[in-house]
User: What shape does this take?
Amino acid sequence: MLNEIPLFEGLPEPQLAELLSLTHEFTYPRGSIITSQGELSNSLHIILEGRLKVFVNGSEGKQVVLSFLTTGDFVGELSLLDNEPRSASVLTVAKTRTLMLTQEAFNRFVDNHPETLLPMLRVLAKRLRALDETICSLSTLDVYGRVARVLLQQAQDQEVGQITPRMTHQDIAEMVGCSREMVSRILKDLRTGGYISIDGQKRIVINRKLPSRW
Assistant: This one.
């Protein structure tokens, strides 16, 4: 189980078993807030099943979606390293099961196995680099470029091609910082051009390489 989580990839089985013994499993119905932006809490959640939306609320109350997470992803990793308030809120968009690891339990594990900390920090650094790329795209790409980037980021390889999880036009709009109407227009044009299609589960299928500009 934990050996499939990037944060713990490469850890020996005995250490993975010890780490698993320090976690607690929780189940959340769809629409549950797992953590709230600004709250003081210090636990990591590893997704066993389901789907989460990570978002922040701006100064004017506008919601900005940072990412969608699914099975094998994790959230709350920064709280294992500091005691600062949560930087984002996390909402379940489907029934979700997670393993929760508290900061106290994590510290005990690292005290016993200090050699495991550096590989985990490398994974966290990779996440921070991805966040830098997202910030850069918001400031340098036009709306179409940001929409295309989200589609490619979210899509996973399957037998029929690359398919995104189910996302509403509003979800995409909140991820790229534009109106829902603009997203709808771009997706409609991509469908007309044969670049994407919508499957029976209302997921976006990328049929061929998206154009670099629109």
Summary: The mean pLDDT is 87. The two ends are 42 Å apart (CA to CA).
